[in-house]
Specification:
Blueprint (H helix, E strand, L loop, with lengths): L7 E6 L5 E7 L4 E5 L10 H7 L4 E5 L16 H14 L5 E6 L1 H13 L4 E7 L15 H5 L5 H12 L5 H10 L8 H11 L4 H12 L14 E6 L6 H10 L4 E5 L7 H4 L1 H14 L1
Parallel strand pairs: 3-4, 3-5, 5-6, 6-7, 7-8
Antiparallel strand pairs: 1-2, 2-4
Helix pairs in contact: 2-3, 5-6, 5-8, 6-7
Length: 285
């Protein structure tokens, strides 16, 4: 399965010497695609093919991911946000519409916290809670309200399994991804996405997952001033309550929930509806 027809590969180098890979296609307004944890630029295939008809589309592989360099450092949200900022400047992207998935939303929120709206014009946030880790001191019902998925012991077991050289980290990764599809997703698609995920070494995947889960962005979202579309899926492992909370926290955000094949990978399983919602938002903002 190829990444996407007609896309060009390129690299930019960060200030700590890491080459970041990106896919690029089309011309027009800049549209930046920011993948989630352990995902790759190639997984945006259906968006690159569609939006490159009207936009200059750039999809980035985070450090360690996809075809980017795999250094032994920097697997934290703040470094990935800095990488993203440096890529935007290196490619001289302006008035950027940023489409982020899952952990890519956290990278985007961190980018906002550190760099504000520099070069950004609008945001699309798909399927990420503002906080992932439940806290024992929270009042009853708060975890469900914000969609916090994990307890500390649960995430510690997952991270330990990924980082343990004696464990079957590949099997663990495949099991982790299974919940992100609808039952109708094809076997070939599932296997290909597992292979894309495994391009990030599992030790680094464990480090990054832990850092991502420990973040809490609830104080950042109300300070976002860009036009924002918050997307979720009715079939997603991420509770609809989580995306509703994000949409309620970002001033004047628009909320859309995909009802058909609305999995965590809806951008792959149902690209027609996913892309349609984004096009409608870009045309209205």
């Amino acid at each position: 399965m190829s990444a996407t027809d007609g896309a060009r590969s390129g690299f930019v180098t960060t200030d700590d010497g890491v080459r970041l890979h990106y896919l690029e296609a089309g011309s027009g307004p800049d549209l930046l695609l920011v993948a989630g944890w352990s995902q790759t630029a190639a997984q945006w295939r259906h968006q690159i093919d569609d939006f490159s008809r009207t936009h200059h589309v750039v999809a980035v592989d985070h450090r360690g991911h996809g075809l980017s360099d795999k250094p032994d450092h920097g697997y934290r949200i703040s470094r990935l946000a800095t990488d993203l900022h440096q890529l935007v400047h290196a490619l001289d992207l302006t008035d950027v519409s940023c489409v982020a998935h899952s952990m890519g939303c956290a990278v985007t929120w961190c980018h906002w916290e550190m760099f504000g709206g520099d070069r950004l014009a609008r945001l699309v946030l798909f399927d990420e809670p503002a906080v992932l880790l439940r806290q024992p001191y929270w009042p009853e019902g708060l975890a469900e309200e914000v969609g916090a998925l994990y307890g500390l012991e649960e995430i510690a077991r997952t991270v330990a399994g990924l980082r343990d050289p004696l464990s079957d980290a590949e099997k663990l990764s495949a099991e982790f991804l299974e919940a992100m599809w609808t039952p109708t997703a094809g076997t070939a698609d599932r296997r290909w996405v597992v292979g894309q995920n495994l391009l990030l070494p599992r030790e680094y995947a464990g480090r990054l997952l832990l850092d991502n889960v420990m973040q809490d962005w609830r104080d950042v979202l109300p300070r976002i001033t860009l036009p924002t579309l918050v997307l979720g899926g009715s079939d997603s492992v991420i509770p609809t309550a989580a995306v509703r909370w994000v949409a309620s926290a970002v001033p004047r955000a628009t909320l859309k929930v995909l009802r058909s094949r609305g999995s965590h990978f809806a951008f792959w399983e149902n690209p027609a509806d996913f892309n349609r919602e984004i096009r409608a938002f870009l045309g209205s903002s």
